[in-house]
Write a structure and sequence with these properties.
The structure is a homodimer. The first copy, chain A, is of the alpha+beta class and about 230 residues long. Chain A is about 45% helix and about 25% strand. The first copy, chain A, is built from eight helices and 13 strands. Chain A binds a DNA duplex (30 and 30 nucleotides) through helix 7.
DNA sequence: CGGAATCTTGAGGCCCGTCAATAACGGTGG
DNA sequence: CCACCGTTATTGACGGGCCTCAAGATTCCG
């Protein structure tokens, strides 16, 4: 394979992404040849439930939401993929179908590497496998917390935590919610209406300040944390 | 290290456990030397939140429940560890503390291997790392489903699914619930009272039959599956 | 057999989901 | 720049599922 125009992009992707950190230069180059690059506009689907899941998808730039559809048709947000995050681990070995959807929230570029190639790669580059185990471990912790929060605390508490986490990630006084209320709602296991009401309630309690309909400011982080 | 009395036990453990499948004989022997063996009586804690988490814990025989404590003191069941299951992946790399508790539900024996040894092992035995990625992937799928179910369907539906899964795992006409109602409750994100009521309701609808207070029989699996 | 833990059953209330109608927003084209 | 229209957000009224509290029944286990 000669050097093609997209080679540069592929190597960028490899370098950006945590699971490919600490690999030898040779391995990095190997990965770059195995990876394919795709671009999605905001709103486009990267994959859908029912698609054959034969590759690992890594976000090189942008943002995408991953969600499931419950039997009764309700959406459940599973996570937001940021730059460097990946999805598809679930189906890396079982040759199966995606159970969830991934939709670009902004213009997003992703790398994909086939199940087969990735498995081979893990055999020859143990650091990759170790990075992978590490990443999956952190994902598990996060999922366990999400489950626990949803079942043990009130919507107001979950929303407060979500605001704190979101603002912390952006460390700015005034921050913009990256998701529509509908998506925040399914992420927190509730409805858009309830999100609206709770945001009003938090504002009336003087804990947050509403700037525009999706720009907010934390006024009292301590009390936000203490909501049951 | 000469052959000690517990070497036999240690190798058994290694052979029983899925993540150690497909390893070369040499690797299996190496693992056996790195593993320590412990026994816990029913009710004893294998680890607690706050303990230093410096090892991977694998259930060689028995059953244990893993749960978290929410800020408000409520328990959240995370999972049941069966023979061959393991926990500790979360803290395999971050040198940190356990966030959850593991308690033996019956007399249980576990193997433990230190973070450090396990990491070294993954570098030299790539199959192990691959098995690990596989196992973690399945765990993630299961957690995502748990989250989705808890937030999108009714307690009755969740309980129905739980009964179906439990009976399927034991393939017997009449099956015994392995957990106390309190634990089933926190697993399904509800309360013991509600579990009681819903079991009565399912019985009245003719979907299940109650034999004793924790022995049941599935009468109509199809309709159980269809509960919203 | 006895005491403790677990389970059941009832009554009451509240959180939050649902439905519906109005308002605000945001992107598009004239 | 503004008028327009689809999408998204807000607000209200209402009802129901489930949690809470409490008392009584049953089971478990020494």
């Amino acid at each position: 394979m000669g050097k093609l125009a997209h080679d540069h992009t592929a190597e960028d992707c490899v370098e950006l992404v945590p699971i490919f950190k600490n690999l030898s230069q040779t391995d990095i180059e190997t990965v770059a040849t195995l990876v394919t690059h795709h671009h999605y506009k905001s709103g486009e689907y990267i994959f859908s439930a029912g698609d054959t899941a034969d590759s690992l998808t890594i976000v090189a730039h942008g943002q995408a939401k991953v969600f499931q559809m419950a039997a009764n048709g309700k959406e459940q947000m599973l996570r937001i993929l940021q730059t460097g995050d990946f999805d598809g681990e679930a189906t890396l070995f079982a040759n199966s179908e995606h159970g969830s959807f991934a939709q670009a929230l902004m213009d997003t570029s992703v790398c994909q590497i086939s199940q087969k190639d990735f498995q081979t790669l893990m055999q020859t580059a143990p650091e990759l496998a170790v990075n992978m185990v590490n990443a999956l471990g952190r994902r598990i912790v996060q999922l366990e917390q999400q489950t626990t929060e949803v079942t043990t605390s009130s919507v107001e508490s979950r929303l407060a935590n979500y605001l704190l986490e979101t603002s912390a990630g952006l460390n700015e006084e005034v921050f913009t919610l990256p998701l529509k209320k509908k998506d925040i709602a399914t992420y927190l296991g509730t409805t858009p209406e309830t999100i609206s009401r709770k945001l009003t309630s938090l504002t009336e309690q003087g804990l947050i300040q509403k700037i525009t309909n999706n720009k907010f400011k934390i006024l009292d982080a301590d009390r936000l944390m203490m909501i049951d």
